[in-house]
Amino acid sequence: MGIFILGIETSCDDTSAAIIRDNKILANITSSQEVHKRYGGVVPELASRAHQQNIIPVVDVALKESGIAKEQINAIAFTRGPGLLGSLLVGTSFAKAFALGLNIPLIEVDHLQAHILSHFIAQDNSEAPAMPFLCLTVSGGHSQIEIVNSHYSFEKIGQTIDDAAGEAFDKGAKIMGLPYPGGVYIDKYAKKGDPNAFKLPLPKVKGFDYSFSGLKTSFLYLIRDKLKADAAFIEKNINNLCASYQKAIIDTLLDKLVKASEASGLKTIAIAGGVSANTALRERLKKEARKRDWTLHIPPFEFCTDNAAMVAMAGYFKYLRKEFASQKSVPYARR
Ligand code: KG4
Ligand code: ZN
Questions:
Q1: pTM of the entire predicted model
Q2: CA dist 41 to 51, 173, 176, 230, Å?
Q3: Measured in angstroms, how far is the CA atom of residue 192 from the centroid of ligand 2?
Q4: Which are the contacts of 66, defined by CB distance < 8 A and separation ≥ 6?
């Protein structure tokens, strides 16, 4: 037996469906949209159209892979926001129709809470974080530090006042002429570069808040000035540029996370969101954890970037408390 939840994620450019039984994954299928590559970023209208094409096949494959019949599903959970409205609307409408057709409850999920709750998906070699813990959520649209008191209580103590960390990666990559999503490419080139090759200013923001737009502008000016003297500057220095820019982002993220840990006294630390896939960030966190006696929780790669398993997991916790949504539920672009 157990509780079967179908999760649907369509907040940005990944169409994903997952089926879990309690906290175990039976299927987690994601179709990533290639159509945006040539535009250097996600084009919202193209994203919603692609979601419309993908959603039914993706759910169908997830159902087949799970080995269960759709009549066995206890509830359907969907990402209500934040994200692109047109994209969210596809997942929301699908979920409503599915719930109506099968006469099962509908559960709305916050995308960022889902990223955090991905830590509670059963894994072979690691345990879920003990409450309360501190979570750094770093995605394409958000960077925030939260105290997680329970599966239902998230206390935000810091957030970005301008660009998100993922956005900083993507914009920096764009300045260097790298494809979208830039974080992955910066990660790759940085491995061969010297992180101290170029000095970049670190933001001075109060409390546990972040700011990345100043760093991006300094990086832009550095490259613009160097290009005047040498048109091949980027190609010659790509590894060092990526390593230095990446270091500035990671130093910034860690500075506030360390401060938040010291101020709250919390030493159970987790990260979540697309940027948590970054190799150097993961290594740096492990180093800090040894130094500061943190119990660290880093998600496996498959749960870092957008996926529906995390949505199903978040839905499961709401199911236990019967926190169901109405057919009138509408998506939200921002929190
Ligand atoms: O959580 P996510 O998949 O989608 C949102 O909710 O936004 O995060 C996407 C972000 C993008 O900005 C992407 O560049 C970044 O995560 N990202 C990375 C890496 N993989 C994905 N950033 C740095 N290093 C990576 N390896
Ligand atoms: Zn995300």
A1: 0.97
A2: 16, 11, 14, 28
A3: 27
A4: 19, 26, 27
